[in-house]
Amino acid sequence: MTAAEKIAALRDLMKTEKIGAYYIPSADPHLSEYLPEDAKRRAWLSGFTGSMGELVVGLKKAGIWTDGRYFYQAELQLPGSGIDLQKLGVTGTPTITQWVASQLKSGEALGIDPTLMSISAAAKLETELKPHGIKVKSVAKNLIDRIWADQPEPSLAPLEVHPTRFAGETVASKLKRVRAAMAAVGAQAHVIGALDAIAWLLNIRSQDIKCTPVAVSYVVVTPKACTLYVDGRKVTGPVLKHLGKLATIMEYREVGNGLRDLARSKPRVWLDAGTTNRWIQNKLKGCELHLAPTPIMAMKAVKNAKQMDGFRAAHVRDGVAMVKFLKWLGEAVPKGGVTEMSSAARLREFRAEAKEFKDISFDTISGYAGNGSIIHYSVDEESDTKLKPRGLYLIDSGGQYPDGTTDITRTVALGKPAKLMKDCFTRVLTGTIDCTMTPFPAGTTGRRIEMFARRNLWLAGIDYAHGTGHGVGQYLGVHEGPHSLKDLDTPPVVEGNLFSIEPGCYENGKFGIRCENLAFVVKDEKFSNDERTWLRFDTITLCPFDRELIETKLMTTDQLAWLNAYHKQVFKELSPHLDKAHVSWLRKATRAL
Amino acid sequence: MTAAEKIAALRDLMKTEKIGAYYIPSADPHLSEYLPEDAKRRAWLSGFTGSMGELVVGLKKAGIWTDGRYFYQAELQLPGSGIDLQKLGVTGTPTITQWVASQLKSGEALGIDPTLMSISAAAKLETELKPHGIKVKSVAKNLIDRIWADQPEPSLAPLEVHPTRFAGETVASKLKRVRAAMAAVGAQAHVIGALDAIAWLLNIRSQDIKCTPVAVSYVVVTPKACTLYVDGRKVTGPVLKHLGKLATIMEYREVGNGLRDLARSKPRVWLDAGTTNRWIQNKLKGCELHLAPTPIMAMKAVKNAKQMDGFRAAHVRDGVAMVKFLKWLGEAVPKGGVTEMSSAARLREFRAEAKEFKDISFDTISGYAGNGSIIHYSVDEESDTKLKPRGLYLIDSGGQYPDGTTDITRTVALGKPAKLMKDCFTRVLTGTIDCTMTPFPAGTTGRRIEMFARRNLWLAGIDYAHGTGHGVGQYLGVHEGPHSLKDLDTPPVVEGNLFSIEPGCYENGKFGIRCENLAFVVKDEKFSNDERTWLRFDTITLCPFDRELIETKLMTTDQLAWLNAYHKQVFKELSPHLDKAHVSWLRKATRAL
To answer: Nearest to residue B218, comparing CAs of B199, B238, B246, B239?
Structure first.
């Protein structure tokens, strides 16, 4: 079936359901960023595989809303589908509501699947469409599922225990903290839908979503009980023993009944409107709702000392794999036969040499030359390009280890780089350096800190259409909140947060550059005093930046000193784990500039 | 009467009025930043003369809430008054509401003067005190006025016409734009209380508030009419001719009756909840209110080409005065006899040599040595300090000219500066330079742009407890919104905005450093393209920075190039207006580093 045929079939169902448009978000019932295979409805229907994109199909037209990271990719994948690309953040782009209002008449309805829309998103949609007389109608069985003949079955990956030696905190302690937060706002129950929050709270993991070791589940916490709703076939003996009396396990499909039972006593229930779906809310009719972000996210975002140790160990392993990869790449490309896909596969193999390696932490972005300018490029058989001994190659990848998750981007010159490439690379690298080396007073928000990463590019009239950094989970999601280094209203950066720092520069169709390290937020002991706490970044990613791309004339003495000290540290920490040939390569790659 | 005696008298009145606490804000009925003399109730009662400070007097305790700019000053002025200093922005400081809740019992009342509190502030107070069972009670006649025997009479300064050759836009055109904005939100009336908004809209000025050439007045705009409520004794022939049929003039004291008449037809009324007082709102009972910032502020914040020309001309005049002053200062201080007050007076005289000079634009901050570390230091007979030929001297001043308002800070070494002083000065100066020289994409907010001014200080663990910059009116308030370079939720910076850029560094009791220029936001022609507009700052302040305080080793090549080009421009633009001796001085002061 082509995208156009699928949309035609969908439109037939829409007419039966008496809806003028149908909303197909990139979502599962847990509002996950990355989706289980059976939830990839938008990608299946439209052919657009970017990780972000909201599709709305009307009876005549259809539109997909995505952001700057994916404009180029969407322009390649959408033709023929009959779906218009709607560029978020670009002047003149209608909002989804404006578009729906232009397609539907007053009295008509927009159909949604209530399990695939957060409480806040559903409420916003209703509020915005109301003035136009357009209703939001919950359609009971998902319309895509009715036409998706070969839709995958839900995952049955077993539950795993995330041991306290990595987590640094017991489930009992975490439940105690969550219950204290509930008591503080007078909540008698907290229904949790976010899978990474559940994994953190119960120190469990699973493999239901590729690259993100979570278990599809719900959790309900009350002052006395904790219920985990999960497919019984996933439950193993060690997990039963691990949870003991701390949590009761119920079947995933029973959550609706469980919530109806809960609602009978009309408790005050804490729901995170951003990560809990509308269907859950509907089941709690009659309860007083405390709508606020779950306290778990902010707790999860502060790493304890044990977790920091784990992350550092994981990054030594990951750095070793990166060094092996970079040495191999430099030798293999001139010989020919290396492609974006084979290169990414080789990097995975290097990572897998570590016995602790579990999985990659997201689909590797392996972009050669012009493909590197597609910010979140996802290489496939069709786009796969051969790496030649010239131009730039961008590789953004990460690993899942039981003690930590990694996320690293390096940009490599495969031949003698042009002046423009060196200039751009150096502006990006000094952005990473400036952002990393500038201490900041406690209370500073990420949208302010990330300016330091942009400045050297802005001086040349260059900006990047993405944030500077995101949080990273421990053997969990490679993106986690609530903190960020983005122009968003996120809470101040605090001690124990872990961030990616990843400015970039993209020359459409020519090359892409990104320099990404992960760094913990630690107390700056030198500057902190009784009156004020100062914080600073402490980099944990260990891998050299390509010396061939560095134009030292564009760097200040301080930036150069930072880089040389960083490279020295990389050599010191990685060389004990490398053989002679790799130590020799690393010595050259990290020598002072 | 001492502060303690005044407070005792106030407490007697509070008992009669049956209120447990009385709120004395720094406010007039127009929520002006700077107050007419008769409205300076808080300063009269407490003795604390900082421009920002909220006083609440309970039956036993009293507290004054002020921000980081004034901690030091308050600590000097409050002792003996019985008023506790409450430091805003410092952990552990109770909010006013928390403090009131700790002083009053449920059922008791906090008294306010409804003309002195904005709609939003009054609503916030009520909402926050409600859970404590504390009421907010409007007290009809201000309690301070009842005990303030020698309270000044309201100003009778005449109205002046602000000619179109400076304003660059007629009153008719401005009224048309405001009415279009009203129509867009379906407002049948717009009641305006902010004095600078009124002055801008009607192209009028007056001298009711020191340094801020506004007229105490209200304006009501409807689709067909515009009524100016102002004391009839202030109205002159030229103003009557200027307004013609565009506006009807009514007596200031009639505004209450006017609003009652307006309310009869139950129109939808636009009120700016931040700059309109609660008393106005009360007069409009029964009307549907559109509570939103007045559109005038954003219009006023965008300067047209004629206004820009005027500002530039005013800055040449102001720069000439500053050069005369700096030359005089360097020669006079070693001879002895110069004090903070006499120095400020001398600068005023130099400004007054220009025939266009109208007034200073705010009380000059003239701070020698330790006094310079008081961020908004206001020198008086008691604190007046002699300038010696050593240490640092900070002078923050401005002038009012009919074509522009100026605001400039320079920090001068009166002898050979210590290494710490040079280091700190250079970090502040490079903050001003970095903030000025970095272009930014349209849509960037001030809280992000100001990071460039802080970075060089943060690298040394130094921060300043104030914003980096504010808007400036044309022959109007030296502070204007809605734009700012502060960590506030203000709208994106747009072309035509005028900003101060003024980072600082304060070593308590030792010295203060601030480097302040004004700069327009202009389109960056080099970087703008069809897809994206880039903006940049264009500095209009013309005055050298003290070369003795610059440590070039701490500067990048780009920063030094900016400074040398700036000094070259200062010389070029000012020297034609100076005599030989001053040209010679300026040549030395601006020679390349």
So the answer is: B199
